[in-house]
Amino acid sequence: MFFLSLVCSLLFTFPSIAKNGGEGDASFEVKKTWHLAINVKDENKAAFVGIDPDSLAVSYTDTKLATNALRLRLQEDFRSGNISLDQVKEAFTYQLVNEIIPHWYGTPWSFGGHTTVPNQGKIACGYFISTTLNDMGINLNRFRLAQKSPLDEARMISCGAEIIKVVQEDSEKAWKEIDVLTSDGLYFIGFDKGHVGYLLKREGELFLIHSNYPAPIAVHMEPLKESRVFKKFNTFHLVPISQNDILLQRWLENAPIL
Q1: What does the pLDDT read at residue 228?
Q2: What contacts 170, CB < 8 A, 6 or more positions away?
Q3: Residue 47's pLDDT is what?
Q4: What would the pLDDT profile of 203-230 be if each residue is shown by its tens digit?
Q5: How remote is the C-alpha of 5 from its chain's centroid?
Q6: 156 by DSSP, 3-state: which?
Q7: Local structure of residue 100 (DSSP, 8 states)
């Protein structure tokens, strides 16, 4: 109910994010679906399910404005003691996974891609992470973060939190260890020295959200176990995002991530 009432209040600041009518319509309903992109048998296509088409009709500029308004409102309520850090984490994760990231689904991958506009130009895996975190309002240099190695990206995002290292001889064992070591929430995942993405655990299921260089060669989301990129590596570095107290407090205060 907290997050629902918070989003409803933002409608009057940014009426364009209303989904059920004109500017004065407050009949807004948050549908807590988790956006999922899965491969279909034709590897040249991706099927996107769980996405409310109306949410993607909102411009990305408006989504970023609403995200900043959300951060400021959460900052005020947290400072005054009206909400807990756990509620901040819930709102942050929902906004990043359900509002920011879906605009990027289908944006083509390129090794040197660094577009700032979804589906205009191309984006590399590191820039997908740094750009979406930056657009979420995390105070970081997206070029500096994207150009780091996966391990150094993990260190920067961690803000000192523990980096979980998984080394296994095959993907099945790696998947099982990652499953044991993670709880529901969003993580950064670095693949040895070659790739990065988000790891989302939702209701016990593991998903990879990334700018994918095999087909469909675009930003999408897939079950971790089925990812061809995941199967290519045996060393992984994981950092909690939605459960990272220091990172979320820096987000609230607009403090830089160094």
Answers
A1: 96
A2: 234
A3: 34
A4: 999 999 999 999 999 999 999 999 999 9
A5: 22
A6: helix
A7: I
- Amino acid at the residue 212: N
Q: Which residue has the tokens 């009057």?
A: 12
| Contacts within 8 Å (CB) and 24+ apart, 207-214 | 207/36, 209/97, 209/101, 210/125, 210/128, 211/107, 211/109, 211/113, 211/123, 211/124, 211/125, 211/127, 211/128, 212/109, 212/125, 213/109, 213/111, 213/125
Residue with tokens 């950092």, as numbered in its chain? 239
Rounded Cα–Cα distance for residues 33 and 66 (Å):
19
| CA separation, residue 79 to residues 8, 85, 121, 180, 222 (Å) | 21, 10, 40, 35, 37
Please state, in angstroms and as integers, the Cα–Cα distance from residue 99 to each residue in 30, 34, 49, 107, following that order. Answer: 11, 10, 14, 15
| Type of residue numbered 18 | A
The residue behind tokens 């009709």 is 57
Give every residue of the chain whose pLDDT is below 70, as ranges: 1-57
Strands 185-191 and 195-202: antiparallel
Give the Cα separation of 248 and 234 in Å (integer): 29
pLDDT for residue 258: 77
The DSSP string of 8-55 is HHHTTT-GGG-SSSSTT--------PPPEEEE-SSTT-EEEES--HHH
Q: Are 46 and 37 in contact (CB under 8 A)?
A: yes
Please count the other Cβ atoms lying within 10 Å of the Cβ belonging to residue 258: 10
pLDDT at residue number 18: 31
The beta strand positions in the chain, using DSSP E, are 36-39, 46-49, 164-167, 185-191, 195-202, 205-211, 219-223, 235-240
* Cβ atoms 251, 136 nearer than 8 A: yes
Which residues lie closer than 8 Å to 198 by C-beta, 6 or more apart? 101, 129, 186, 187, 188, 189, 208, 209, 210, 241
